[in-house]
Design brief:
heterodimer; A: Rossmann fold; OB fold (Dihydrolipoamide Acetyltransferase, E2P); six-stranded mixed beta sheet; B: 294 residues; mainly alpha; binds adenosine-5'-triphosphate; binds magnesium ion
Chain lengths: 369, 294
């Protein structure tokens, strides 16, 4: 038995375009998904998440490369012979069957004895808290309930891997948050490998053991949520996950992890931490997370302290969002409101002269691109 | 003023439409019970039950009472043959054209291929082509083909290929397929293909997926298409006229033959029965189409 549940080796999927060209929906993707892992594919619309998932499920065959499930190469094996099951974004429930019939379908295909089908369907519905809804038609269910039926229908087959394509996409925010927790709990309970597709970075961060960030058919970074957020390996990942500020510059000196970057906009040098290998003289970008950047009223006797002017302030209760003009760049700084006061003095004012400081470990030096 | 007040104009014109639509049918039904044999004037109902008695061209007593002409009809061997032919043709052509039309609709819906638009348009064109043109076309095709085959296979006498039941069935299939395809296509519009993928994902192969998921979902469309094909086949005169041969007369052809000789109330009785059958078929079609399926 393989260490990996699912493995993509150099998978390419090309589609012909109506104009006669070709589009690389998946472009030389290599990924290893471990047993029992909650693995997310995250990326903007059109980056190839669905296509990757569909090649694993067998609805599409890779143009080149190979997919291994449980160490076995899948080749051109049809979906019904693969030990994976899919939860579709549209749920894809059978409209002419009741909830129980929907869930039983997969077991009937396996020629499971009637008694056992009945028992397992009951168990599956209980797991997704739908007991008592067996006789209903999918049209008589709410979005969240349909979602659960789709989940039960796949889980009842006890697949090695469950593939989920934006399963919560159609739900409202509140229900989505609830289902995120439920799904995660369910995954831990059944111990099945989940491959989860989403374009919602918060969802991916909350639920996943590891995340693959994709763009334009390419996997940019694979890592734990904390790694992806705290140590993005390129500008795109830093930008896509959470909010950040970018300052363009040129590498002047390298000392271990510390990199000194000259920022033309600030006419000053900034010391940061390298997140990926860089060379002296290279054009780079420095990423400053708004919540890890500080504003002070007087110049401090330390490095990475830059003068600026408050452009705008937005009070949002827990935070104050301050926009500072820093040499022509609008820099976002999130200040936590740690003191409860109505005193206007406690907050910044528009046009105020301030200083922005950032610790070297909070300034990430990234490749362009 | 009540905005939902019915305009008298609308009421009157609707009434007129119904009047002109249904008066002929009412008259036709009435004359099916006429005591006169000539079918020109309504001479009253046949009131007495007993052995048939005819007085100066009027039937005044019959074993079937008012249903005299229906009984006559049932005894008529030609009518029985024509009915049998009509139903045979309708059943076989409906079954075949439903299968072909359904698959054609699915193929058009699903696959992108070269000449797809062309295939689609050419499938529907027979619907708008005048029937008589189709009829002549099919006739010419059959006669050319048969002449060719007969001489090529040197068939003689009874074994020669001629027009008959088979040619009628084939041509009925030909004109029904576009209608079935059109109806099924409408049903397929918006068909969520991911339910087929879901079935395959859950372990059903292509065939099982079709039987268990695709077909049940589009069944209302398929049934409507089949009933449409059935009624079209029952009704058809023009194309049947061109493609039928000796001994393969259908009801419309038979009625037409009768009319050329003498119009007896038997024709009315036959038409009455027929209209009832078609009413039922159309009613069923409507029921199936309007049944809000999923
Ligand atoms: N069947 C297809 N034919 C042609 N192009 C396709 C096909 N499927 C996907 N593509 C293209 O491949 C690229 C990746 O599509 P994919 O559906 O995988 O994106 P995605 O990451 O799932 O996006 P989203 O978040 O919007 O669902 C897109 O540019 C898309 O236009
Ligand atoms: Mg997608």
């Amino acid at each position: 038995m393989s260490e990996f549940s699912v493995e993509l080796r150099d998978v390419v999927k090309k589609f012909p375009t109506p104009e006669g060209g070709e589009v690389f929906a998946v472009n030389h993707v290599t990924m290893q998904i471990k047993n029992g892992e909650f693995f997310s594919m995250l990326g903007p619309s059109g980056c190839g998440k669905t296509t990757s998932l569909r090649t694993i499920a067998g609805f599409e065959w890779p143009t080149s490369g190979e997919i291994y499930i449980e160490g076995e190469p899948m080749g051109h094996r049809p979906p019904y012979l693969r030990p994976v099951n899919t939860v579709f974004q549209s749920y894809a429930l059978f409209p002419h069957m009741s909830v129980a019939e929907n869930v039983a379908f997969g077991l009937e295909m396996e020629k499971t004895p009637k008694q056992e089908i009945k028992r397992r369907v009951g168990e599956a519905l209980e797991m997704v808290k739908l007991t008592g809804m067996e006789r209903r038609n999918p049209t008589q269910l709410s979005g969240g309930q349909r979602q659960r039926v789709a989940l039960a229908r796949s889980l009842v087959k006890r697949p090695k891997v469950l593939l989920l394509d934006e399963p919560l996409g159609a739900l409202d925010l509140k229900l989505r948050k609830e289902m995120q927790l439920e799904l995660k709990a369910l995954q831990q309970e059944v111990g099945i490998t989940f491959v989860y597709v989403t374009h919602d970075q918060e969802e991916a961060l909350t639920m996943s053991d590891r995340i693959a960030v994709m763009d334009g058919g390419v996997v940019l970074q694979v890592g734990k949520p904390v790694e992806i957020y705290e140590r993005p390996n390129c500008r795109f990942v830093a930008d896509f996950i959470g909010e950040t500020n970018f300052l363009d510059g040129e590498v002047r000196a390298i000392d271990g992890d510390r990199v000194t970057v000259y920022i033309p906009r600030l006419k000053d040098e900034l010391v940061g931490t390298k997140a990926s290998p860089v060379r002296i003289g290279e054009q780079v970008v420095v990423s400053l997370r708004p919540e890890k950047t500080r504003i002070i009223e007087n110049k401090a006797k330390m490095g990475n302290c830059f003068s600026g002017k408050v452009l705008n302030i937005a009070y949002i209760g827990s935070d104050t969002r301050v926009f500072v003009d820093l040499g022509g760049v609008s820099l976002k700084v999130w200040e936590q409101n740690k003191i409860s006061t109505l005193d206007p003095e406690a907050y910044y004012e528009r046009g105020e002269q301030v200083w922005v400081v950032v610790m070297p470990e909070n300034a990430l030096v990234l490749h362009l691109g | 003023m009540n905005p939902h007040r019915r305009s008298p104009l609308v009421v009157v014109s609707t009434a007129l439409v119904y009047f002109f639509l249904y008066m002929p049918i009412v008259v036709l039904f009435l004359f099916a019970f006429n005591s006169s044999k000539t079918n020109i004037l309504f001479e009253g109902f046949i009131t007495q039950v007993g052995p048939t008695e005819i007085v100066s061209g009027n039937v005044i007593q019959s074993p079937c009472g008012p249903f005299h002409w229906f009984c006559e009809l049932a005894k008529n061997v030609e009518v029985r043959n024509a009915t049998r032919n009509t139903l045979t043709i309708a059943l076989i052509s409906t079954l075949t054209s439903t299968i072909i039309g359904t698959f054609a609709a699915i193929a058009l819906q699903r696959y992108k291929f070269k000449l797809r638009t062309f295939s689609e348009v050419s499938l529907y064109i027979p619907i708008v082509i005048p029937e008589i043109v189709m009829g002549i076309g099919i006739l010419v095709l059959f006669s050319q083909l048969f002449t060719l085959l007969n001489s090529a296979l040197s068939l003689i006498g009874d074994s020669q290929l001629t027009l008959g039941l088979t040619t009628v069935i084939v041509s009925h299939i030909a004109f029904s397929v576009p209608f079935v395809a059109l109806v099924v296509r409408a049903r397929l519009h918006g068909f969520d293909q991911s339910i087929e993928e879901a079935a395959m994902d859950l372990g059903a192969n292509e065939l099982v997926t079709f039987w268990r998921v695709t077909l049940p979902t589009i069944m209302p469309g398929v049934l409507s298409g089949a009933l449409l094909a059935f009624t079209l086949s029952l009704d058809d005169f023009v194309i049947t006229f061109f493609t039928t041969g000796p001994g393969a007369s259908t009801l419309p052809i038979y009625v037409y033959g009768l009319l050329r000789r003498i119009v007896t109330p038997q024709v009315n009785a036959l038409s009455a029965v027929w209209i009832l059958i078609i009413f039922v078929a159309v009613f069923l079609t409507q029921r199936l189409q309007s049944r809000q399926a999923y």
